[in-house]
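Protocol step 4 of 6: structure prediction from sequence.
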Amino acid sequence: MKNKVTIVGGGNVGATAAHWAAEKELADIVLIDIIEGMPQGKALDLMETRPVEDFDTKITGTNDYKDTANSDIVVITAGLPRKPGMSRDELLDVNKKIVQGVTEQVCKYSPNAILIIVSNPLDAMCHVAKMVSKFPKHRVFGMAGILDTARFRCFVSMELNVSVEDIQAMVLGGHGDDMVPLPRYTTVAGVPITELMSKEKIDAIVSRTRKAGGEIVALLKTGSAYYSPSAAVVQMVESVLKDKKRVVPCAAYLEGEYGIRDLYVGVPIKIGTNGVEQIIELKLTDEETAALNKSANAVRELVQLITI
């Protein structure tokens, strides 16, 4: 029996995620949205690329949650995107209601699914999904750190003019302006970037990484990033479905790890068939710990505003 992945939200992030996942032939895909005709049209358009790109994935567009029944993974991208000048925090109330309603529906039809959250503000929306679903923590987690780390790696690559394939990096914390890129854990073919560029250059790249989402929002004028977020979440989907045991930074529910409790925060995790299979605790300096706590506190302030 083929795996089944539902992607909630047929906008740019959701539809592009469906595209990446379909090309990889990871599972049959259901694309669902409240706008009549839109997910059906995008699904049909993707189906018609199959003879050109040589894949046989079945892609269904729908407005009915019954069609999502028995999904192995549900990716939630639904919600309003950021507008120029809008912070992730300002999205909280409106997207909380959207994610709450979506989670209720997907859990009704797929009670054994793994939920991967993409909606912003990311860490807070993970809390909403966990509270509403009542799923165990290993089955509810969020896409954040993979994207932030990809951006960090991209900027290092651009600065040093080297292949991104040779760059490893790590970004912790909430998916926002207080995220914590770790230059000490960032290498090029095993060589720490602290040996390859000045502190000033590293600080500039760290700053740009923290503001990367806003940089794209400002350039686009309408909408927000979607190629990189969708690629990041499909990497998570693939690691679950293929039991790849990838170790990547994601928003996971902490219960004392890193000294943080009862909060979704970006940390390195191992992803396999069961979802979050292990939380990896890095040894942090006092400065890095302080930065992570600051980021976690910013997330906690948002979570305290959530009522379900």
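Step 5 (inspection) to follow. Residues 84 and 247 are 33 Å apart (CA to CA).
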